[in-house]
Amino acid sequence: MKLLILGAGGVGSAAAKIAxxxxxxxxxxxxxxxxxxxxxxVADVDxxxxxxxxxxxxxxxxxxxxxxxxxxxxxxxATDPRFTMPIFRAALATKIHYLDMAMSLSRPHATDPYxxxxxxxxxxxxxxxxxxxxxxxxALVGIGVEPGLADVFARYAxxxxxxxxxxxxxxxxxxxxxDGYEFAPSFSIWTTIEECLNPPVVYExxxxxxxxxxxxxxxxxxxxxxxxxxxxxxxxxxxxxLMPRWLEAKRVTFKYGLGNEFIEVLKTLHKLGLDRTEPLTxxxxxxxxxxxxxxxxxxxxxxxxxxxxxxxxxLWVQGTGKDGRPRSTYLYxxxxxxxxxxxxGCQAVVWQTAVNPIVALxxxxxxxxxxxxxxxxxxxxxxxxxxxxxxDYASPWGIKELAV
Amino acid sequence: MKLLILGAGGVGSAAAKIAxxxxxxxxxxxxxxxxxxxxxxVADVDxxxxxxxxxxxxxxxxxxxxxxxxxxxxxxxATDPRFTMPIFRAALATKIHYLDMAMSLSRPHATDPYxxxxxxxxxxxxxxxxxxxxxxxxALVGIGVEPGLADVFARYAxxxxxxxxxxxxxxxxxxxxxDGYEFAPSFSIWTTIEECLNPPVVYExxxxxxxxxxxxxxxxxxxxxxxxxxxxxxxxxxxxxLMPRWLEAKRVTFKYGLGNEFIEVLKTLHKLGLDRTEPLTxxxxxxxxxxxxxxxxxxxxxxxxxxxxxxxxxLWVQGTGKDGRPRSTYLYxxxxxxxxxxxxGCQAVVWQTAVNPIVALxxxxxxxxxxxxxxxxxxxxxxxxxxxxxxDYASPWGIKELAV
Lengths: 404, 404
Hints:
- 2 copies of one chain form a homodimer.
- By secondary structure, chain A is of the alpha/beta class.
- Chain A has 2 domains: 2-100, 3-Layer(aba) Sandwich (Rossmann fold), CATH 3.40.50.720; 149-348 and 397-401, Dihydrodipicolinate Reductase, domain 2 (2-Layer Sandwich).
- Chain A has helices spanning 10-20, 35-45, 60-69, 84-93, 123-126, 129-135, 149-160, 189-197, 238-246, 259-271, 289-296, 337-344, 348-365, 382-390, and strands at 2-6, 27-32, 50-54, 74-77, 97-100, 138-140, 162-174, 177-178, 201-204, 208-211, 219-223, 228-234, 251-256, 280-282, 285-287, 307-308, 310-321, 326-336, 373-375, 398-401.
- In chain A, strand 1 (2-6), helix 1 and strand 2 form a beta-alpha-beta unit.
- The longest helix of chain A is centred in the C-terminal third of the chain and has 18 residues, at 348-365.
- Chain A binds chain B through residues 182-183, 264-265, 268-269, 271-274, 276, 280-283, 285-289, 291-293, 295-297, and chain B through 182-183, 264-265, 268-269, 271-274, 276, 280-283, 285-289, 291-293, 295-297.
């Protein structure tokens, strides 16, 4: 399989490092708008199967040309979600497999944004479902960790642990700290702002998808493996849009363990208009305030050496177990930054995101996962994924039973 | 007298409007790097004595050339304080009077910034004191409202109310709100960040000038005229550097009634590095994050129609009265936004800043204030200033006795 990784930021370069340990890929092109960044990734990997090139991910025809020239079989989009659609369309036009870790962006409801959905996450992609079916290729959307592994957990719980599900509740938390920085997010601030300041989306079987005010339904969740209690709030996330398409559940939520300090920072950025993406004129040049916020902060992909702690992604499932009794179970995956740095030279959050699409690509390459059209991870069997992740990729996952 | 107003922002254009009501100026050139802004100010004033032109205030020789061409007698610097020094040097080189409302910028102590001063506010200006003496012209520095009117109050209290002063404490507070904005500062956010995030400076007779952590010594001060209680904290400000040069006091402080919300916003901007002025590279262009913050917020000079409330500038003096008994007195000046909008079409904070240099220029033009070299407002007699302000300029001030 010939893979194109588009985007050599934190997640893209971690994906390259993870892929280099495996033999299923015959060649990997790492492309970025910044050639030096792609070249750095390829130099770090130091594997003759890997090549660097420059491409502008916003330019669909340039992406198509690159796919054609290099006879690519599958593209992994590892850019920020602004560029999801041109890459998605280029993969469709060139009839190759497509994977991403962040779906097409939402737009709030014009008049009632905190109760009704407008354009939902992924809507622009699902609008092309028929065309993907016809192409015969697989568009595996949302196959990072969240969305991604959380959706695999949902399929696993649905198949193996529960007879009826009241709530599929993604819960994400960490105890990461960064030496020498008063404030240093461990993931793309651009994406975090997008997720956290958009109206959070919730799914209920009776009501369908609806939205709430940002930071709604705060809850303290006790994360495993020594991470402990973190304040979590509703955040717009792909899992809420994906899981109900393939799985039965009365309610689907996503709560992010932002903690109070981060929530206050995000509220302040919004209050000052610094979350906006539309360019402003500043001293004769045009810049997007959100891009300036991202540029002012340290690059999270480069903080690994200074980071300490663990990050946890997981799914809290509540409902009725296979035995007919109430059940409350947290399925989770923890990465210790010390481990991911020692093993891969990648910080925990980007490594945890990047491993999942590579596991998925291996399942596609070996024929264990097959499908056509646009599918979420929960549309495919969970067991081979979880076995490969914990086995050959040496990254275990866990199940914790909670009081009911 | 031929005046050059350099900077046609909020304060500069308010100064033009105030000056247009008076007859002591024979001509006024309003200059800005943005010609359209200068032209707008001149069009609003609608007085044949006023002319607009473009000049880059950072370019000392361009300012000198403009002064020469127009035979200017005095320049009023109304730019942000980054441009104080080139204007100050241009006035010295061309031997004309100089007035400003914000002095040359400080630089924190390299190793002990929250205890020791580094380069203090105005140090760069006072380094040229001998040259100004020799030129025979007057450089009247810090003649806005704070610094400015607060310094006039200090001189007045020192001459008329107190035999010994324990503390000269500037206290600034407001109850201004802006319709339709969650957050809309009523004064330049660039300058507010500069003032509030630099280490605050305090003067004590025994110790000289020293600094503290930002936002130190919080105190609730009860402002007059219905404004009420506002949380005030130490802030770096020119009065602390000016007053001890000419007046006897055991302690000099400046506390700004920022309120909790504003303090949290400033702390967050600092935490994210968005207070920095050094340019960042963002998508191929260079911008200063602080300029982006300013550009993202509404222009405070244009908010007057939507503003409600009053702003108060004043000086809390504690010590021994002329009668030998303990005395605690607040001298203050309140501007109601409704009044300044109705009378001048200017919002309260910029009007309150802009009126003082025009009153001072009138005293210089009529010979009531004379002097040479670099002087603060407290170096000149307070009575004619306060009489003219409350009389012909119709803007009264007050004295409130506090419990001792």
